[in-house]
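FYI - complex with adenosine-5'-triphosphate, inputs then prediction.
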Amino acid sequence: MLGCIVLTAIWPAIFAALVAHLITVLPAVAETGRALAGIALVLAAQEVTRAVYEVARWALYRRYEEYLIGRVIRAALDASTLDIFERPDLAAKTDRAVRIAGLEPGDLVDGLTMKWPLQAQGIAAGVLVATVSVPAAALLLVLWLLVGNRLQANMRRSDQFSWEDAVHAASYTHRIGLRPEWAKEVRIFGLTGWLSDRYGRQAARILAELAKARNVGQRSLTMLFTLVVVANATVVAGALSGDLGLGAIVLLLQGMLGMSLLADQSGDDLIEYGASRVPVVLELERLVADHATPHPGTASASGRPTESIVFEEVTFGYPGSGKVIFDRLNLEIRAGTSLGVVGLNGAGKTTLIKLLTGLEVPQSGRILVDGTDLRELDQESWRKSVAAIFQDFIRYELSARDNIGLGAVEQLAQPSTDDQIERSAVRAGADTILGRLPQGLDTTLSPRLDHGVDLSGGQWQRIALARTLMAVQGGARVLVLDEPTAQLDVRAESDLYNRFLDLTSGLTSVVISHRFSTIRRSRRIIVLDGGQVTEDGSHERLLAAGGTYARMFRKQAMRFSSHAEENIDE
Ligand SMILES: Nc1ncnc2c1ncn2[C@@H]1O[C@H](COP(=O)(O)OP(=O)(O)OP(=O)(O)O)[C@@H](O)[C@H]1O
């Protein structure tokens, strides 16, 4: 910062020094020289001020942005359940806060720092006018402030519209067209023309609405501008017919022109956008606080479960959906065993896992871990006891080391972690993937980043499995695979599942799959249907019982050859 100030002030300073030198050697030019020296000093001061201002503005911008985005991130991460992301009445607000906070909230600082100097110049011009005529200065001040106020009101009206449904819809349309992961499907389905037409129509509607909003209040604005012109003309006419000297008239005209800066709109839109983000962030914080667990549990979950996880009369439906997913569900999962879960699409398999992990809370009934209500357990320690790979697991655009090591984040910084990561990779069958990476564990797993590498769906799955195994090294005792093998071929799936059974022996595991080739290996399988466990037993027992499981299995067996994949929902 100091260097910047010195650099900007150096030329005026050299100029001032030169003039000072001339004054001493040429006394005849002393008078002019003093004036020049004064100008040089003013220039130097102006440059220094500008440099300080720019540096301070940028620092403030960054700090404010980090502060506000930090608050959004903290608020979103503080939410211990998924309510604010999934409940229809809350999700839109959360989405808005998260998006708005990401849209350069520093606009507020930019706007204010743009606006303040102009306002200061406008006021200085007013003072200049007041030295010639106080009433003229007062009249013009009032008129320009009114004009500014009107212009701001117009802008605010159109701005209010800019977050309405049409803008939301248009922004979603262009996101469909621009998201790299959707580019394939958009082209294959020939959606490019449809998307650009749709965006064009939505944008036209927005522009029409904006024009409509701007037209409101135009008459009063026109009247105010007319008054400004009349007032200026009157003041000028009075000045010309009075006994003011040429200098005073020039001063007056300059001041009158400068006073228009009081209504200048530069920066107003930025202030408006920037300021509008603050209440949205506050609303997100309020939402999170309102939906926080009132009395979070404190009992440590470390090492649990040693006996069982029991769903006792659990009733659950997603708030706001009006649909009951589980109706007084009873289920016991013995610690150290593997449970396979099947059911038709929408039967509630993933929801069961969300309840088990504490991401959703039952409306009634209890989930007991070794006899202790899940609500009494410290959530953080319970989640360390559970590791899950969901269908839509995260493909972090980070190094291979992080992608696996994040399973036990506390150990990531330790020097011995690389060994553990490699061990987990070997167990998950991901060691050959790592072996082919150009920078080994340091390779970034993203084609979007420099020197990054992309993986196939199946390879990503192995990386995710390795991450879960890292979690086991970090203390996880319950492993969940929610449709873990959908992108692997039958042989690879079988290999993965066998590995999984070996690796998780002695741990509690829950496997959800639509493939019988996966599920049948579980010693115990349950069928979820209509919010209840309708069948419970080994593959052989369920087949012999001749219920839903047997029917689905036979239906597939008839449809597919013995080599084909067997999908439950076929
Ligand atoms: N966040 C949510 N808000 C409202 N309803 C939801 C939400 N998530 C899931 N549902 C609904 O709850 C029901 C159960 O969903 P869930 O994802 O648990 O089923 P699933 O058995 O895992 O299905 P699939 O086999 O298709 O993965 C479905 O009807 C689904 O539409």
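Strands lie at 308-316, 326-334, 338-343, 364-369, 372-373, 386-389, 478-482, 508-512, 524-529, 532-537. Residues 562-566 have pLDDT under 50 and may be disordered.
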